[in-house]
């Protein structure tokens, strides 16, 4: 965290000195010096709750008995700055560069755990921005590409393990791995769909098979595991799945996405939920649809998170709407958790399914507007 | 008040002292005391630079932006992982060449060179140094205005960390080389995995990597970092009470890849020669 593990190498030090030299100068426009923060074990008293855009300095004194940390969050819990390891009795300074006006939150975290004791903090005016909108869009795709890379690596690893379990004939283990493995696929499915026949080969449902198309991929193994039992060619299908996923992962890492791809992908994932998961069609044999549901939602949220700085600048109202609806769907999903995973689709009541459907629709609507905002 | 500062000092000091003590023990055991003269300048340089930069950051209004700090911290943690990993395998290779030495053939042992020894000790200490320095200054400033307790606690914590590392060094010196090599190597694999996870977490906090709020587990109730055992775990293995999925995956991936590589044949091969009588 902030300075906690900051290692020093010669190069790093040089960079540090250069950076500190050129970003120096306290332009805290909230006249009268730093904003003082008094942190105790149960309170977080901030001397001012507004500041002008620019560099804002907080001076945090820990008057409690536990080690504490102090954060300034932007919307969506994006960390603007933090200082940690403030031992009882100590005072530490934090200077944060806040270029944009908007609603922020301060937080003290006694014991350095949890969400902390939050307080609203408003920044007004505007300061010279270090990055223009195009850089922000560039950052968005970069940060989402990293997400895709991390998810696809995990996908490959988990798929190999799943395939091994299938091939070793260990049906129980394979069944247990099935839904958690698919999570990585479902999170980045819009990316997968960009590669022609890979998505069908990996993820086709039996009901959607076209004339002459082979039934391969996850759902074929799902059927073998849950319904028909292992077949003569099950091992072959498992091998093909690993091969297809390997190809996908290589291609997914090389793909150049545009900001519009992100916005549309976020929406597509929600459509996936509406057409497959809420109807229980996706996991017709295993009934693990809610795992996929959560994964689609995660993936959608990741794309929106990457776009957040741009969206927040152009249409803050839309961002808060999207946030609220994400939260709403998540709350409904959380209610259906069981152990490490979720209840099976067959355990849901008609009312619960209807509730999901309308929450997803409500999220879908503002999400569909994000592409337009990005394209501006 | 005193105790929590003590834990911070212990935690900050432990990791650096651990890596350095293993490095020193290795050099001493393999009869390369001459390379020790490269360890101390590395440590000294790290300490001096940490104190200098800590002073600049504390006493001037100069500031790094949060992202700059995290990007710097995160990437250099990952550089440090590279160095510790190199050290593990260097030790493996060097301990193998000791066998050759016993047969009368002189070593190619310092193949990595004095500069690497210097850089490694520099990184091990420097990684912890800046935060420690900033904390130290904050404690000194507070002491001028009243209480000296945080300062005392902090100093005692660092002293305990050094004492633990020294104890480890004494213990390690007594093992035969095969055993020493296996035990410390395994320990270092876990240390490096922790540093890797922490570095990634820094990058997540800076927003360079996603998934900051996707937690693999939250053990802040069971093993809080502010407890003595949490501080110990954090100092040694970079344990994090709230571990993100990315951190967990990286940690597991590192251990799963490096540990088997490390434990493979060469360790077994050297043991009989050094320990003498196992075959």
UniProtKB/TrEMBL annotation, chain B:
<dbReference type="GO" id="GO:0015093">
    <property type="term" value="F:ferrous iron transmembrane transporter activity"/>
</dbReference>
<feature type="transmembrane region" description="Helical">
    <location>
        <begin position="150"/>
        <end position="168"/>
    </location>
</feature>
<dbReference type="Pfam" id="PF03239">
    <property type="entry name" value="FTR1"/>
</dbReference>
<feature type="transmembrane region" description="Helical">
    <location>
        <begin position="245"/>
        <end position="263"/>
    </location>
</feature>
<dbReference type="GO" id="GO:0033573">
    <property type="term" value="C:high-affinity iron permease complex"/>
</dbReference>
<dbReference type="InterPro" id="IPR004923">
    <property type="entry name" value="FTR1/Fip1/EfeU"/>
</dbReference>
<feature type="transmembrane region" description="Helical">
    <location>
        <begin position="38"/>
        <end position="59"/>
    </location>
</feature>
<feature type="transmembrane region" description="Helical">
    <location>
        <begin position="180"/>
        <end position="200"/>
    </location>
</feature>
<feature type="transmembrane region" description="Helical">
    <location>
        <begin position="71"/>
        <end position="90"/>
    </location>
</feature>
<feature type="transmembrane region" description="Helical">
    <location>
        <begin position="6"/>
        <end position="26"/>
    </location>
</feature>
<feature type="transmembrane region" description="Helical">
    <location>
        <begin position="110"/>
        <end position="130"/>
    </location>
</feature>
<protein>
    <submittedName>
        <fullName>High-affinity iron transporter</fullName>
    </submittedName>
</protein>
<keyword id="KW-1133">Transmembrane helix</keyword>
<comment type="similarity">
    <text>Belongs to the oxidase-dependent Fe transporter (OFeT) (TC 9.A.10.1) family.</text>
</comment>
<keyword id="KW-0472">Membrane</keyword>
<keyword id="KW-0812">Transmembrane</keyword>
